Amino acid sequence: MQPLYTETEFKESKSRDPLTLECEGCQKTFTRTKHAIQAAINPNRVKNDSCRYCSNKCQNRYAPTTGRLAVTVSCQQCHKSFTKTDSQIAKSKSGNHFCNHSCAAKWNNAHKKHGTRRSKLEKWLEEQLTVLYPDLEIHFNRKDAILSELDIFIPSLRLAFELNGIFHYEPIHGQDKLDKVQHNDHRKMLACAERDIEMCSIDTSSFKYFKEQQATKFLIITQDIIGSRLSGS
User: Which end of the chain is more exposed for a tag (fewer CB within 10 A), N or C?
Assistant: First the structure.
């Protein structure tokens, strides 16, 4: 605590009178009541830094105490600078920082490696394509290309595949659900066109149960399209 009042002023002041202090962080002057100062310097009371710093912001930034030392970081999503305490940073398992929950959700959705409801066909195709094209970077069920999930995306070829099952064509769960699915499909198509990505929609509605023999025909379709792009035709 850095007092700017004299000993005489302290003795003559009343309990609720404000006395001037200097912030140990930003060096600005501020006031606290005599009562608050007495509580802060009382060795029998719990340590209180309210008379050392002019505000909670300065206390969080400058107080040399574990969990309260603030560090300036940048939001992984919007790149806005903000402060986090050292204990908050220590709790971050990914090492990424976000200024709010919205930015965290947007970034995590765009960078997740797998979807939550992948069919056996999608998983099988991932295994096969990874083996067939070891030199190609292929993204499966990620949102980083158009901020909406693509089943298969090959960045170097600007080529995407969507495997559309029966739910994309028939109102299995009602017309409203079908309308939403088809609206989303159309939105994905437009988003790809805006980013110069060729979208190839493959109708898999006839594929009821996973059988490798039947799945092979969808692998051949994707191979033919990828092959034509690689050959430049």
Answer: C
**How is residue 117 written in tokens?**
């409801």
To the question of pTM greater than 0.85 for the whole model, the response is no
CB-based contact 125:215 (threshold 8 Å): yes
Strand bridging mode 70-74 / 81-85: antiparallel
Residues 47 and 92 in one domain: no
Element (H, E) at 135: none
- 75-94 per-residue burial string, b: 16 or more CB within 10 A, e: under 16: bbbeeeeeebbeeeeeeeee
Co-location of 52 and 2 in the same domain: yes
Same domain, 50 and 77: no
Please report the pLDDT score of residue 64 as a whole number: 60
- Identify whether residues 185 and 217 lie together within a single domain: yes
Alpha carbon distances (Å) from 191 to 71, 78, 153, 198: 38, 21, 13, 10
> Which among 205, 195, 133 is positioned nearest to 166, based on CA atoms?
205
Whether residues 204 and 145 share a domain: the answer is: yes
Determine the distance from the C-alpha atom of residue 139 to the mean position of all C-alpha atoms in its chain, rounded to a whole number.
19
The CATH number for 129's domain is 3.40.960.10
Task: Give the tens place of pLDDT for each residue, 72-109.
Answer: 888 888 888 887 776 677 766 667 888 887 777 777 76
Judgement on whether residues 3 and 87 belong to the same structural domain of the protein: no
User: In the prediction, which pLDDT does 198 show?
Assistant: 95
What is the structure's pLDDT at 67? Answer: 44
| Domain membership of residue 35 as a residue range | 1-60
Number of domains in the chain: 3
